[in-house]
Amino acid sequence: MATSQKLTEHFLTCSICTEVFDKPCTLVCNHTFCRKCVVNYTKTRREAISAKSLLCPFCRKMTKVSDPEKPVEEWADDVQPIFVIQGLLDSFGPGSKDTTNCSYCKEEGETTPATSWCSVCDDALCERCTRMHQRIPSSRNHDIVDLSSETKVKVKRKVMCKVHKDENIKYLCKDCKTAVCQTCCIIHHRKCDMVVEIESEIPAMKTELKKNKENLLKKHDEMKTYVGKQNSIVKEELALYIRIESSIKSASLRAIQMMKAKERKLLSELKEMSDRHIGQLKADIKSGEMSVQMYQQQTELIDQALQSECDMNVYEIYQGCEAGDVQAVGVVDVKEKGRIDRITFRQDSDKLSRALEDLHLGEIHVQCDDVLDLKAAPVLQDTINVLDLKAAPVLQDTIDVLDLKSAPVLQDTIIVTVAGDAGGGYPIDVTVLEVNGTDTVVVTDFENNSVKSFYSSNSQPGHSKLNLVGKPYGIARLKHNLVVVTLRDTSQIVTVEVTPDLVLLSTITTSKQYWGITSPTPSTLAASSESPPCVDILDMSGHVLKSVCPRPNG
Fold first, then answer.
1. Which domains does the chain show, CATH number per domain?
2. 12, 34 contact by CB (below 8 A)
3. How many other CB atoms are there within 10 angstroms of residue 286's CB atom?
4. Could you report the per-residue pLDDT of 470-521, keeping only the tens digit for each?
């Protein structure tokens, strides 16, 4: 009887659910589990699902399934247990015992209906044998299960101590947070204050597990609702994508149709002009052929006169030549008004490129969420805009005409002279920033070697002045509340923080004297130089990344 119990506890119990094997399956590593248990564990491991294999919870080995196309729930159906496990289940499992008749009475040759089951002895007992079983000191504390309501007996798991292999684990040391046997309590936990029986803690554990279950179910429902909403959003976005794609194709088609119409107009105009030009040339050819015939006839007349022996013939032809009759028959060279001299097609590649770049089919607007879950998604901490220095510079346009018809309008006037200035002030360049909701004007004062900011705070005007070691010239906004200023005479570029008061942050020395300046990206600068005449692309340390010289004369 004890042997049957030990076999069931040590060899026929699933280590996942701690119950007797239900439809066991043995993996390639010879570890055996319930089919349902190993499938549920596999479903929690992404690597196993990707590999189409069952994953062993002990050794992590993969067991290939015979038909990976089946649902995951059916993967373990074709995996059979080894014959040893199956044999033990057949001989000692819950279904191997006869729970109808009393085992002890059957040994005496009697047939008595069983009413109870001893989970320790693994035997069915009648009422009389049950009373005797409970009187014997060695079996008095065995677990007896009533068989009146169900015939299938579940084996209660007896966990043995790893150190003292003959003793069950019955106690829980709360101080050490570990389950121990009685001998371990005496030897290792005698000084611990909180050593209780596991059975006494089960109700509290079950209550806590129920709370955890409720929380998990709540999260399960919330996540299920979230996934449902996301699926709906995906469907809506797919439909929106199809509509936007159709709009882009329609806009592109209209642009192509306009280009085709322009092509047909150019070809029609070319054909009309070409036909006219070729007609004029053919008329010239016809006139020339007639002139050739006339000249041939006059030549023949002169030749006949020279060969004639009559002096009068020679005289008459001579008089005709003197009077201009011979030349009169020639072609009169008269320039026809509007006559086509030559047809050419002048293609402006630069203008065409600009037109194509300026061809606005539309814009793609992306709206991002304001709130980002930092626990779930990685965060991009910073972004550096990169300037493409491989692209060849192209002179797009030059404006040399001043529009004198536009009437200037005076919007406002700022007096840049402040207290402490040596002169009246000579503003060179200006930029406007919004700092903490305050519009701030920042000016470079060439005469007083300073940068000045002007703003209004609490309806009161305010200003700030930052003295520099050189004469400031150009100014440009770098990002948010930062500006960069060129010091032409000292070959420097300074970075100034606007709060809206001015604070000098950094100074870099350059190889040239720069005048104007701008910032193509937050990490690059573009500055103009007079000698040599060029525009340089610089990094934030002052190194020249690329130099552009669009005109040889500056």
1. 2-146 (3.30.40.10), 427-548 (2.130.10.10)
2. no
3. 10
4. 899 999 998 888 999 999 899 999 999 998 899 999 999 999 999 999 998 8
